[in-house]
Amino acid sequence: MGWTANDIPDQTGRTAVVTGANSGIGYCVARELARHGEHVVLACRSERRGQAAVERLVREVPSARAAYRHLDLADLATVRAFAGDFPGERLDLLVNNAGVMAVPYARTVDGFETQFGVNHLGHFALTGLLLPLLLATPGARVVSVSSGLHAIANIDPGDLNSERRYGRWMAYGRSKTANLLFVHELAGRLRAAGSDVIAAAAHPGYADTNLQKGFVRLGNLVAQSPRAGALPTLYAATAAGVRGDAFLGPRFLAFGGAPGLSWRAPWTRNDVAAERLWAASEQLTGVRYEALD
């Protein structure tokens, strides 16, 4: 049958941050973590939707410990505020889940192309700012949600913000490739620093979520539920034996089924490209991972 949410180990005493947790896969991840005892922070852009998600989660899991905190990945000032005001002295899990998909060309508050800015740079900054807490927490993990569609486009180091040429699907693919290059470089730096923090990536396959708005849906013949789509992320976040730089996804033609190791484009393991993207991301966001230098 394979791994299911019932196989999640007891998470009592642990704290997790899940970005974009007000709906879809992010909500399902937060709910299952809370169901197994984790204190979950739902980091969302909309206060109304975030608070409503917390209320729904507590109705569905009466024992849940969950809270909403404002985070807009398209505005680095809110990313800094989120990290700067984060309560407590530990963070066991950061799930970089929030994202936008195939949107028309636009720019974030800080002037970045929206998909690159939200899907990659916002999470790069958030992870770096929360890194001291992660490093101080034994067995902590960072899980970044990428997509099988990373394979449609490699990043262009000379045009990270797609200023010369913009295609909404190409830009989405580039941002998802950036997620995997980020995890590749982060995992390597953590390993070199002797840290036991695990950085891994996951993708949901094809799941019927709000992210698919504007996309031609394949319906119930192919699309799986958000709950099923959340399993690879939950596996990366909680299962024993997950290794740094792993990429987890559904086993059935990358669309559905139990989670396992997933194919990834060879350019997502390019050490030179990963290091260059890291340096550019530090420069663009102003966030340095000093503990891993």
TrEMBL record:
Coiled-coil features, chain-numbered ranges: none
Pfam families: adh_short
Origin superkingdom: Bacteria
Keywords: Oxidoreductase
Family annotation (Gene3D superfamilies): NAD(P)-binding Rossmann-like Domain
The UniProt record lists the keyword Nucleotide-binding: no
PANTHER family assigned to the protein according to its UniProt record, in alphabetical order: PHOSPHATIDYLINOSITOL-GLYCAN BIOSYNTHESIS CLASS F PROTEIN (PTHR43157:SF31), PHOSPHATIDYLINOSITOL-GLYCAN BIOSYNTHESIS CLASS F PROTEIN-RELATED (PTHR43157)
NCBIfam families, per the entry: PRK06197.1
Name of the protein described by the UniProt record: Oxidoreductase
Taxonomic source organism: Streptomyces silvisoli
